[in-house]
């Protein structure tokens, strides 16, 4: 997917027993879900590794011919593969079209519109095939939808006889499995002790600075009012002194006359 290899710790399961096995991989952000038959393995990447395609130009399904990441050729059936909500098989068969998407098939790859696999009556896949006719002809490729639970029960031994049988009614193109719901955050949002202490001291410092600013403003207002009051008191004192001086000079002028 262009984000490097993602290694999952899972229980070993033999797949070379000449039987068909259901292998599914779901990616939802940093979360990866691997299913091998009824065995599920969940993994969450610790960082941005595998989160996006990283400008990947070519996406290989079933085989990677690169010399650095060489894989063996996949022999089986790929179904329920979507690209931005469009089935890859429909794009490859020409049933859907997008100008920015070009699908190239190898010579030994066939597109089967109605694929039926012959299974044993007690096979774990039998219930899945019985549920297909009940599905509506809609796409279930929704990141926020809930995941349909797999049927419980002991897995059987499916036969290896596979045929593309002709059916009377067309099989709807809908994936019976859905992405896991986003019920929890993919990243750990628990703050570290150091971050908690830093936040507490930051709040204390901001509170202290606000208190000092408020006290300074109150002191400035009090100082201005006190200064204005002193100026008014001094002016009244000077006016009273001037009136008293005039009253003392008046009798002297009268005596001289």
TrEMBL record:
PROSITE patterns: LAM_G_DOMAIN (PS50025)
Transmembrane segments: 200-225
Laminin G domain span: 1-107
UniProt keyword Transmembrane helix, yes or no: yes
Annotated segments matching region Disordered: 139-161
Keywords: Membrane, Transmembrane, Transmembrane helix
Pfam families tied to this protein: Laminin_G_2 (PF02210)
Protein name as annotated: LAM_G_DOMAIN domain-containing protein
The organism of origin for this protein: Mesocestoides corti (Flatworm)
């Amino acid at each position: 997917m262009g984000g490097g290899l993602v290694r999952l710790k899972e229980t070993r399961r033999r797949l070379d027993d000449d039987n068909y096995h259901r292998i599914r991989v779901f990616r939802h952000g940093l979360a990866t879900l691997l299913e091998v038959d009824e065995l599920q393995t969940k993994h969450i990447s610790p960082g941005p590794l595998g989160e996006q395609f990283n400008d990947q130009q070519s996406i290989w399904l079933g085989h990677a011919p690169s010399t650095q990441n060489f894989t063996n050729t996949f022999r089986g059936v790929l179904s329920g593969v979507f690209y931005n909500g469009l089935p890859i098989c429909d794009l490859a068969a020409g049933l859907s079209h997008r100008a920015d998407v070009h699908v190239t098939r190898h010579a030994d790859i066939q597109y089967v519109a109605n694929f039926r696999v012959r299974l044993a009556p007690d096979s774990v896949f039998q219930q899945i095939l019985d549920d297909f006719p009940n599905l509506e002809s809609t796409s279930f490729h929704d990141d926020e939808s809930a995941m349909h639970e797999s049927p419980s029960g002991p897995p059987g031994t499916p036969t290896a006889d596979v045929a593309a049988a002709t059916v009377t009614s067309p099989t709807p193109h809908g994936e019976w499995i859905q992405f896991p719901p986003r019920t929890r955050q993919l990243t750990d949002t628990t703050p570290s002790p150091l971050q908690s202490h830093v936040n507490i001291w930051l709040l204390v410092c901001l509170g202290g600075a606000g208190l000092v600013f408020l006290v300074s403003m109150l002191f400035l207002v009090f100082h201005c009012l006190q200064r204005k009051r002193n100026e008014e008191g001094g002016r009244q004192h000077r006016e009273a002194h001037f009136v008293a001086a005039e009253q003392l000079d008046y009798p002297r002028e009268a005596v001289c006359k």
